[in-house]
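Q: I'm writing up a methods section and want to include an example of the input and output format. Could you take the sequence below and give the corresponding predicted structure tokens, formatted cleanly so I can copy it straight into the document?
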Amino acid sequence: MFEHISPDTIQRARSIKLLILDVDGVLTNGQLLIGESGEIFKSFNTLDGIGIKMMQQSGVQTAVITARNDAAVTARVEQLGITHYFKGMHNKKLAYEQIRHKIQLTELECAFVGDDVIDLPVMIRCGFPVAVQNAHPFVKEHAAYITQNFGGAGAVREVTDLIMHAQNTLQTALEEYTK
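A: Here is the clean output for your methods example:
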């Protein structure tokens, strides 16, 4: 399952203590469905959600930094137990620096999954920058790892599984479901 992963990628993933996620295009497919009265609907992947929960249980913290501020994202963040949540943050670098200092992590201990240029100020600073398969080409140029899956279609699960594999916690987490 991880045969295609380079030793450098495994080494970067092994050091991660905080996984930071963008929302639109990463946790969702990037489409915004807008109802007649202006309400926004988004689709989240349940595989991503289980992966996030398993990784949290293995000891890796999670965060969301998003430029948007809507109820659907807040609800999903709460469902997943993500305690570090920055919404309406167009300056993602500022949010990144705040969270990193709050929980006292080095840049090498942080991963960020993004898809568009607004994510680059964090991606170029963190130890493990990840772009989803359908990310903008310029963003992919700055990624240490590009997922095989698209955003909103299991890309986050791919990253959580990779981090847990690198930290030797994935197999134990998976076997919990077969007891």
